[in-house]
Amino acid sequence: MVSNVRGEFSGVSGTVVFDAEDSANSKVEAAIDATTIQTRDSQRDQHLKSADFFDVEKFPKITFISKKVMPIGDGEWRIVGDLTIHGVTREVDLEVEGPTPEVKDPWGNVKVGATATTKVNRKDFGLVWNVALEAGGVLVGEDVAIQLELELARQA
User: Fold this and answer.
1) Which terminus of the chain has a lower count of CB atoms within 10 Å, N or C?
2) Cα–Cα separations (whole angstroms), residue 87 to 2, 74, 113
3) How far apart are CA 75 and CA 97, in angstroms?
4) How far is CA 24 from the centre of its chain?
5) Given pLDDT bands bounded at 50, 70 and 90, which one contains residue 138?
6) 2 in any annotated domain
7) Residue 104's domain is classified under what CATH number?
8) 49 in Cβ contact with 86 (< 8 Å)
9) Is the pLDDT of residue 99 over 70?
10) 34 close to 59: Cβ distance less than 8 angstroms
């Protein structure tokens, strides 16, 4: 609660089926390797991997499976789906901007980009560890802002 801590996962994989004409045909599935958490502080990263937080020994994956994809504006979408963290599944809404226009990379692959955001309460997923501070308050806040910067490659 002293400052915001930014972290990222490097082990992310998934599949997006996107039908701009009929969003009911669209779906998203993603998996994140929880062991790849990086906050630029190795002690904090190890603590986040421990049973106090992600407990990566028991729960090595974070997953998202969409239930509904809905247009909400020009180039804006809402994806409702099940997010599973620490063995607990909760429904979340992702607000998505994009996709960008298709481009070919230097190797001829067709790609698009998108940004997705949401906010969750970590306690809703069983991540309840905390420490009281001498001056009042607690060490770890409850709200976690999630931002995904996506680069998607078209499959043949």
Assistant:
1) C
2) 28, 35, 29
3) 6
4) 22
5) confident
6) no
7) 2.40.128.110
8) no
9) yes
10) yes
Side chain identity, residue 156: A
- Is residue 29 within 8 Å of residue 81, measured between CB atoms? no
Please tell me the total count of domains within the chain.
1
Residue 64 lies in a domain: yes
CA of residue 20 relative to chain centroid, distance: 22
The confidence score (pLDDT) of residue 150 equals 93
Structural domain range at position 94:
8-153
CA distances from 51 to 57, 59, 94, 111 (A): 8, 10, 27, 38
Residue 1: the pLDDT is 53
Residues 6+ positions from 83 with CB-CB distance below 8 Å: 62, 63, 64, 89, 90, 91, 92, 120, 125
* Res. 20 pLDDT band, cuts 50 70 90: confident
Two tokens, residue 27: 């779906």
Residue with tokens 């499976």: 65
Q: Are 124 and 142 in contact (CB under 8 A)?
A: no
Report which of 28, 18, 14 is spatially closest to residue 112, judged by C-alpha positions.
Answer: 18
Which phi and psi (to 5°) does residue 125 adopt?
-110, 15
CA distance 71 to 116: 13
Residue tagged 């994956």 (tokens): 61
Tokens standing for 123?
Answer: 């306690």
